[in-house]
Write a structure and sequence with these properties.
The protein has 14 helices and ten strands. It is of the alpha/beta class. The chain has two domains: 246 residues, Alpha-Beta Barrel (TIM Barrel); 70 residues, Non-ribosomal Peptide Synthetase Peptidyl Carrier Protein, Chain A. The structure holds flavin mononucleotide. Flavin mononucleotide (FMN) binds next to strand 4. It is an enzyme of class 1 (oxidoreductase).
């Protein structure tokens, strides 16, 4: 059984990765329904929060049904991080996660995200200060290192644990790799195999089939799998992994009716949450995956992604159901 602080997250939990513009409340709700054990918000700027930037503050919204939920923040300035913890706490998350892995230049150049991998002492002292500043469990998400020549993740993880970090999720790439090449899970297993480690070590990067999730559990011996891209527009990935763990077989892919239902609920929840315009616009990215595999789908997809009116998008969903209701997904 893995535990994040006092929160029991089950045996080999599946965690929905924090993903900018993806891991919002509607998407998290769908993933939770399909078996995600822990969900995270996208990263939220500590500087944005303390300036009360509306965009950052909106990202703090969480719903009861998604618990346990972690709010992820990033930054490199101690005062801002501490002040933002107080703001985050007011939203009532179960976990506060620190992003020490974002490779994007505008984040890294400020020493935040993966930028902090160049200054491990700062990474540790920031974490320690944050742990002391809240009663909520602080967790860390990071990468293997800055680049191939500076991988010290075993030592880094141990130091983070020693200052009170309650779990660590490790993406098996360096900052230099961005998303290139394959994620390497061996160094993550080294972290887990360190006899001194007692907090959960979650693996991340390229878990894109149930078999890969099983490999992460059985071959690499990690405590859980954090899943990102495989879930985008496909929240059923979580149930597929769970079914595979339970039975050793693959469950049937979601039917067209299920897909249309999910797409409709996703859109409706997005509209309820952020209004018609943004709801319609920001849900678009998911549709390609919801309906992946249907031949000659482009004209229908275009209907879903070109109108600014939800009524048109809902009508396009109904049309797809009528036209392809019997389509067999493989
Ligand atoms: C669209 C997108 C947005 C992301 N945003 C974040 C983020 O806000 N915070 C974070 O820690 N990682 C972020 N990531 C990285 C993912 O959490 C994850 O580490 C990475 O995608 C590797 O896992 P995967 O192979 O399962 O996708 C993002 C990834 C993607 C694809």
């Amino acid at each position: 059984m893995a535990k994040i602080g006092n929160i029991d997250v089950g045996d080999f939990p599946l965690l929905l990765a924090p993903m900018e513009d993806v891991s919002d409340p509607p998407f998290r709700a769908l993933c939770k329904e399909q078996g995600a054990d822990v969900v995270y918000t996208e990263f939220i700027s500590s500087e944005g929060l303390i300036r009360d930037a509306a965009k950052s503050v909106m990202k703090l919204d969480i719903y009861e049904k998604e618990r346990p939920v972690g709010i992820q923040i990033f930054g490199a300035v101690l005062e801002s991080m501490l002040r933002s913890i107080e703001i985050v706490e007011a939203s009532g998350p179960d976990i506060i996660d620190i992003n020490f892995g974002c490779p994007v230049k505008k984040v890294v150049s400020k020493g935040a995200g993966a930028g902090i991998l160049k200054d491990i002492d700062l990474m540790v002292s920031l974490t320690e200060a944050m742990v002391k500043h809240t009663n909520l469990p602080i967790t860390v998400k990071t990468r293997l290192g800055w680049d191939h020549d500076s991988i010290k993740i075993v030592e880094v993880a141990e130091r983070l644990q020693d200052v009170g970090c309650k779990a660590i999720s490790i993406h098996g790439r360096t900052r230099a790799q961005l998303y290139k090449g394959n994620a390497d899970w061996a160094p993550i297993a080294d972290v887990k195999n360190n006899q001194r480690m007692h907090i959960p070590v979650f693996g991340n990067g390229d878990v894109d089939t149930p078999e890969r999730a099983m490999e992460m559990r059985d071959k690499y011996g990690l405590d859980g799998a954090m899943i990102g891209r495989a879930s985008i527009g496909y929240p059923w990935f979580f149930r597929e992994v769970k079914h595979f763990f339970e039975t050793g077989t693959h469950c049937a892919p979601p039917t067209m009716t299920e897909r249309v239902e999910a797409a409709k609920r996703h859109l409706q929840m997005s509209i309820d949450w952020k209004g018609e315009k943004l709801g319609v616009f920001e849900t678009r990215r998911h549709y390609t995956n919801y309906f992946k595999g249907i031949p000659d789908f482009k004209q229908y997809r275009m209907k879903m992604v070109t109108s600014d009116e939800s009524v048109d998008v809902f009508a396009a969903f109904d049309e797809v159901l009528e036209k392809f209701g019997d389509f067999q997904f493989s």
